[in-house]
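S.,

Sequence below, as promised.
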Amino acid sequence: MHNITIRLLAILFLTMAGIFIIDQNIKSLFVDGWRYYTDCIDLILVYNKGVAFSMFAFLDESLKYIQLVLILGVFSYIVYLKQICYAFPAGLMLGGAFSNIYDRFVHGGVVDMVYWHCGFDFAVFNFADVMIDVAVVWILILNYKPKFCKN
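The prediction came back faster than expected:
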């Protein structure tokens, strides 16, 4: 294996593991019963059977396997690219995605807890969702501004 592939995989796996561990520890607080309520944000427990805004919940058990295949495809593509600049944001995305899929296998749905309701009601989400969103923006920037992607 080339040096660049080893570095890419190390960054990718360490980032994935870090996000997975942080997210699962946060979720365990809520599964164990912790809650907090304010005028704008409630920290509650919701099991999301779908994806964003509960879309595709009708896919039921199939959804987690479809997501697993998609995530393995993203992982394979990042390794195929062999560009270190994608390793960290991809690790954020894949760590969050694996954590959410893990929830589907263990809890029957994704453990969500942050409910924004200040001025308008927003979807309930979690730390992994935020990491996935950050990663998507980061990867889009890398794609549209290749000068930021130097190995």
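The mean pLDDT is 91.

Coffee later?
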